[in-house]
Specification:
The chain is an all-alpha fold and 193 residues long. The chain contains five helices and two strands, in the order E-E-H-H-H-H-H. A two-stranded antiparallel sheet has the order 1-2. The chain starts with 8 loop residues before the first strand and ends with a helix. The chain binds fe (ii) ion (2 copies). One fe (ii) ion (FE2) binds next to helix 2 and helix 5.
Length: 193
């Protein structure tokens, strides 16, 4: 809402002033709108990830990477569910709005998979694309949880926190796989000398 368009209340000294209680109510409703918009964005992003992850799993060369992505696909299906529960927790039906950021990140992932041959370098590309998606999710869920806390939406805080923990763990797991892969590559290069 444009605060300039809000109805100011004339104070007794003649200056235009909005009373503190009205101002904080306005801020709460603006924050609620932001919260809902961000929730619609991540709902779309999670559903897009459910569709995109199977191709990344199929293109992964390392079994460890394929397994980690498969496990996160199952978690991601749960994330879609949780976002629906968050909407329900304040009496709304889940709604998705196209997330341009995730669209771009997934396009990047498609390009990587199209250009690479199966092997360690392709896996490195898939890991980098998957981690970019994770970081977007971590940033979004961190913000959403904070908004929910400020708005006093306790149930939403619990749900968002549960997903945030899983996103962070998936990111850590991908980093571990990337480090392992680089170490294996380095050892193989050393042996080939
Ligand atoms: Fe997720
Ligand atoms: Fe994720």
């Amino acid at each position: 809402m444009d605060t300039k368009k809000a109805n100011p209340v004339k104070a007794t000294n003649g200056a235009s002033k909005t009373p503190a209680t009205k101002k904080s109510a306005m801020q709460a409703s603006q924050l609620m709108k932001l919260f809902e918009d961000e929730l619609k964005d991540i709902y779309w992003a999670e559903k897009a990830l459910v569709k995109a992850l199977p191709k990344m799993i199929k293109n992964a060369t390392s079994e460890e990477l394929a397994e980690a992505l498969s496990a996160h696909l199952t978690e991601t299906e749960g994330h879609v569910d949780r976002v629906e529960q968050v909407f329900a927790s304040f009496g709304k039906k889940a709604e998705a709005v196209k997330c341009e950021a995730m669209t771009g990140l997934l396009k990047e992932s498609e390009d990587i998979m199209e250009e690479c041959e199966p092997g360690a370098m392709c896996d490195a590309g898939i890991i980098s694309a998957a981690q970019k998606a994770e970081h977007y999710e971590i940033a979004t869920y961190g913000t959403l949880r904070q908004f929910a806390e400020t708005l006093g939406l306790a149930k939403a805080v619990t749900l968002l926190e549960a997903t945030l923990i899983e996103e962070k763990a998936a990111d850590v797991k991908l980093t571990e796989i990337a480090i392992d892969a680089v170490n294996v590559e380095a050892a193989e290069m050393e042996e080939a000398k």
